[in-house]
Amino acid sequence: MGGAQSMSNPNQDDLAALTNPLSNEQIHSLLKSQQKKTVNCKTRVDLLSKVNEILLPLDLTLVRSDIRNSLRNRDHDDGSYVPLLIRFAWHNSGTYDKSTNTGGSNGSTMRFSEEGSDPENAGLGLAMRVLEPIKKKWSFMSFADVWILAGCVAIEASGGPRIPFSYGRMDFTTEEALQKNSYTTGSKCPFGDGKFNDNGSRLPTADRGIDPEAPKGCPIHIKEKPTIDGIRGPFTRMGFTDKETVCLILLGHQYGRCHPDVSGYENPWYSFDPAHYNIYEHGLGYLSIYQFGVAQGQTRKRVTAQGKRQWEMSLGGGEPFMMLPTDMALWWDPDYQQYVKAYDRDRVAFKKDAVVTFKKLVELGCEGILTEERW
Q1: Nearest Cα to Cα of residue 90 among 208, 243, 250, 233
Q2: Known catalytic residue: 276?
Q3: Where is the Plant heme peroxidase family profile domain (predicted)?
Q4: Phi, psi of 48 (to 5 degrees)
Q5: Residue 269: which CATH number?
Q6: What range does the domain containing 247 cover?
Q7: pLDDT truncated to tens, each residue of the chain (375 aa)?
Q8: Which of 91, 138, 311, 331 is catalytic?
Q9: What is the DSSP string of 144-167?
């Protein structure tokens, strides 16, 4: 690059001098060096913002390919890490608080025990281990970016829409994480506001029980108000509408199963083979359970061995599909139900909205530091 400064140790003067396009190799070197800098968080954000303004977008095709090749594991659940990695990306992003601009995917803060020990994140240590080789090979990328890109690839690999990915998230140091996300010594969950999850977590919880003061014979959305509020509260805090909330839950819960030893719930939401079966095109899965199960009164309530409420239905006499109380809440609440029905009628609209809404989720708190990949 004619006249460019060395990329081995860039500073603000180096960045100001960059006026010509860089090769991917030079960009990788620059971004990798930024991950090693011991500057404070604000300075690093300013530097990366400047980089993003003047550099060509990266082509992450090879990174995507390596992630896709790591998804299959015949010994894990239904043979795939897809559900795990979608949940992982979701939980890394779902801590965002719009009012304080804290939480979210920037910083890869689940590396710290304060967040990793959140009961809602049980079992996600496996996702970190699965993605460790990807991070090691593509070391110019932050953990935060690798984790979110993996969620995007997992959705596409299962027949879902391609989620345009934007990179530039940072890996906070301990000091930055403590300051940025307001960890409180001794708190059970570091991002807790204590309003909508009994654990104090900012993430939604599966069940908050029925309202003990609800009038006898009242509509179910009144009786189940604590659980419904446990959805609407966190999603509103992040800045999502009811329609966006329904879209995100429908997207995330088309996959995988619950584990008694992790959540206390059991059985799959929906069994699938990401290599051969396309949930979205065939119109099966989560939405069909609403249409053919909940809507027709074909579900049954069961209390698991761990004392958790869940709803089940069997399609074709096989292993029953499971729905959490939060899943049922999308049908119980009239404001949510209208969007469930709308997406059931128009799967094209669902797929289109899923792209926009999931991208919004994983970019919360990352404004001004991201660059969309080239593809």
Answers
A1: 250
A2: no
A3: 67-375
A4: -65, -35
A5: 1.10.420.10
A6: 220-357
A7: 333 333 333 344 433 333 334 444 555 555 555 555 544 555 555 555 555 554 567 889 999 999 999 998 877 766 778 888 998 999 999 999 888 888 899 999 899 888 888 888 888 999 999 999 999 999 989 999 999 999 999 988 877 888 999 999 999 887 777 665 444 443 333 455 657 888 778 888 878 889 999 999 999 999 999 999 999 999 999 999 999 999 998 887 665 555 555 555 556 555 444 444 444 444 445 555 666 666 666 677 777 666 778 877 766 666 667 778 888 898 899 999 999 888 888 878 888 999 999 999 999 999 888 888 887
A8: 91
A9: HHHHHHHHHHHHHHTT------EE
Output the pTM of the full model: 0.78
One domain for residues 154 and 253: no
Q: Indicate which residue of 90, 138, 147, 269 is catalytic.
A: 269
Quote the crossing angle between the two packed helices 143-157 and 347-362, to the nearest 10°. 170
Residue 221 annotated in active site: no
Q: Which residues pair with 167 in a beta bridge?
A: 371
